[in-house]
Amino acid sequence: MADVMSMEDIHATAARLNVDLSSLDLGSIRLPPAEDFGIVSDDEDLKEEESLEFEEGFANIIVVDNLPVVPKEKFEKLEGVIRKIYSQIGVIKEDGLWMPVDSETQKTLGYCFIEYNTPQEAELAKEKTNGYKLDRSHIFAVNMFDDIEKFMKVPEEWAPPETRPYTPGENLQKWLTDEKARDQFVIRAGTDTEVLWNDARQSKPELVYKRSYWTESFVQWSPLGTYLATVHRQGAAVWGGATTFNRLMRYAHPQVKLIDFSPGERFLVTYSSHEPSNPRDTHRVVINIFDVRTGKVMRDFKGSADEFATGGTGGVSGVSWPVFRWGGGKDDKYFARIGKNVISVYETETFTLIDKKSIKVENVVDFSWSPTDPILALFVPELGGGNQPARVSLVQIPSKEELRQKNLFSVSDCKMYWQSNGDYLAVKVDRYTKTKKSTYTGFELFRIKERDIPIEVLELENKNDKIIAFAWEPKGHRFAVIHGDNPRPDVSFYSMRSGTSTGRVSKLTTLKGKQANALYWSPSGRFIILAGLKGFNGQLEFYNVDELETMAQAEHFMATDVEWDPTGRYVVTAVTSVHEMENGFNVWSFNGKLLYRIPRDHFFQFLWRPRPPSFLSPEKEEEIAKNLKKYSKKYEAEDQDVSLLLSEQDREKRRMLKEEWDRWVSEWKRLHEEEKLERQKLRDGEASDDEEEYEAKEVEIEELLDVSEEVISFD
After folding, report:
1. Of 129, 316, 472, 627, whose CB count within 10 A is highest?
2. Which residues form the signal peptide (predicted)?
């Protein structure tokens, strides 16, 4: 701000400089462009208001072309149709729909202008309706009003675009090239979020990136490990990079609560729920589907919580997540949601319903996709008091052809489990007994890849056993079941192959009386952890299913989570902040050896970074497994080097501790020598410090403390 001078100061300064103020033409004085020397103009506020009004422009107006040309008597009907289409997207301003009319013919000119309340609504209307087919002859062409000026500046003659040199972006998968073949993980504790290497050889993690207040609720890896997503009040963001974590894209979605990636990482689904102004109304739900790379909204869904509840009924708590389930493998071709008596399947090329209509399935309550193929498994419960049986159907997409159907009787509940390769589908069926007073459980096992999809029924030896947990072996043919009503249930292992026959299920073994209520297979199969969480206080049994033997038993007191790393080499058990004490995580080898512990107060989250599928063919992987000894020599030598290095470090540490001890002893000896004369004085001139030269004597000393006289009467 410039200094303020009084008129007296101005006249005094002019007299000192011999300047005649009366001869100056103040109107001819011009300040340099954009310079006011700190002096605010009287009309500055007015100028700011004008600039704001100018900046708003016409960004909230769209132009809709290719409308029908109609006479005056059909004008109102056409306007109603247009208003109905565009009012679903946003709020049209009062008098915000204008359709020009030819003054001579009194017919519309085939286009209109629509003014929304906000530019965002106008942009969304353009995205959603450009190319909209009103009928065969009229396909909408929608543009922003502000783009008209840009179109007017298009040159008459075409000129080739400027060729820009290619600049490669960062390698977002560089972490996969780590020379030590380590895996990364992310943790959240307190206000900090950290990404670390799991360095099992060094028995400690190595920090990659750390940031405080990185997210406002949770973090989530994308399915192939390319991105780390964070959640904020304004929306979500994804991070990644070759050596660090940079923000790659933002996704605007106020008050976002949940996010979900498509399997191939092409799309990100965000969810928010907003309280209604009227307490009697249900929450309003907003779901956006973004293109991960561009940040563009590909499709949005809005409605009440009831509309997004399972089966189309229920309140806010009835909304299941994820609302949209992705299918068709890693191509991200299809996604679907369940509604009242329908399954709505969308394809991602146009983000519209397949064949523009949902699949009608009366009273459908659940569905799930095959992990690898565009096949839907649907469950419909019994109807009419049991007159119409429950059923499980397999439906091919996009043809909507029913591949297989199985009717089920006396069903109380049903749950579906796909094997990771999509080879098998297990349907756990809870059935009523004849008295209807209790239930028992069995399994319907579908062999998806075999001809006509044969189905096999599996019942436990004790049909009344409660099923506590079920889990398929990843990429394998075996599954495990925890069953029983005792405090120590049994664990049974089954195979979909029986000896030389691959078409019959067989039991491998049953482990009696285990402290387990959860099953965690290694991602590479073969090994499994039988975990006793919650009431079992973190009991762990590491089991080899190939050899049918226990490798180790351990305990992580109060453990709440078990997470295998993507390679199946290491596993983490964690105690999160649901418990106030013992927060942190332990890292174990696949065979149950504790490698290291990391305590962390207020520990919220642990997530291994996923790995994308290997580029090696199954034949190549099999060849490597056969020649493992040849390949392992290199890594055994590296392990030996690391072991020697650690041994050397341990020796160096012990040497330093010994030197420190020797220095401490030397210092005390020096002090002892300096205080020798003082000790001699205290011993009345005795010079020796050797205790053996002294003789201990007991000396009794009598001392008169008090004398008193008392007269005693003999009467």
Report:
1. 472
2. none
Comparing C-alpha atoms, which of 562, 600, 608 is closest to residue 582?
A: 600
Q: Do 464 and 440 touch, CB atoms closer than 8 A?
A: yes
Per-residue pLDDT tens digits for 120-162: 888 888 888 888 889 888 999 999 998 887 888 888 888 888 8
HEC states along 450-493? CCCCCEEEEECCCCCCCEEEEEECCCCCEEEEEECCCCCCEEEE
The edge-to-edge listing of strands for the beta sheet with 518-521 is 518-521, 527-532, 539-544, 549-555
Residue 140 CB contacts under 8 Å (≥ 6 apart), including other chains: 64, 65, 66, 67, 129, 130, 131, 132, 133, 134
What are the residues facing 274 on neighbouring strands? 284
- Are 540 and 529 in contact, with CB atoms under 8 Å apart? yes
The average confidence (pLDDT) of the chain is 86
CA separation, residue 482 to residues 426, 504, 520, 542, 592 (Å): 15, 21, 12, 15, 20
| Helical (H) or strand (E) element with 12 | helix 7-16
* Cα separation, 294 vs 292, whole angstroms: 6
Cα–Cα distance, 230 to 245 (Å, whole number): 12
Q: What is the mean pLDDT of residues 650-655?
A: 84
Contact status, residue 486 vs residue 513, Cβ threshold 8 Å:
yes
- Convert the pLDDT of each residue in 422-457 to its tens digit: 999 999 999 988 888 888 999 999 999 999 999 999
Distance between CA atoms of 66 and 112, rounded to whole angstroms?
9
Assigned token pair, 180: 């030590």
Interhelix angle 119-129/75-87, nearest 10 degrees: 110
Position 692 confidence tier, pLDDT thresholds 50, 70, 90: low
Whether the CB-CB separation of 445 and 478 falls below 8 Å is answered with no
Cβ pair 261, 268 in contact under 8 A: yes
Nearest to 257 by CA among 239, 232, 238: 232
- Confidence (pLDDT) at 123: 85
How many helices and strands, by DSSP H and E, does the chain display?
A: 8, 43
> What is the share, in percent, of the chain residues with pLDDT greater than 90?
56
Take residue 541 and report the two structure tokens written for it: 């049994």
Cα–Cα distance between 514 and 540 in angstroms, integer?
A: 10
Rounded mean pLDDT, 229-235: 94
**Of 573, 585, 635, the residue nearest 181 (C-alpha):** 635
Contact 517, 534 (CB under 8 A): yes
* Contact in structure between 262 and 283 (CB atoms under 8 Å): no
Are 344 and 353 in contact by the 8 Å Cβ rule? The answer is yes
Q: How far is CA 295 from the centre of its chain?
A: 17
Q: pLDDT at position 9, please?
A: 67
- Give pLDDT, residue 687: 67
Strand partners, 260: 269
Question: Is the pLDDT at 347 greater than 70, yes or no?
Answer: yes
Q: Report the side by side order of strands in the sheet with 401-408.
A: 366-369, 375-380, 390-396, 401-408
Q: How far apart are CA 184 and CA 178, in angstroms?
A: 10
Maximum CA extent, the chain = 155
Q: What is the pLDDT of residue 310?
A: 60
At 192, give phi and psi (nearest 5°): -100, 145
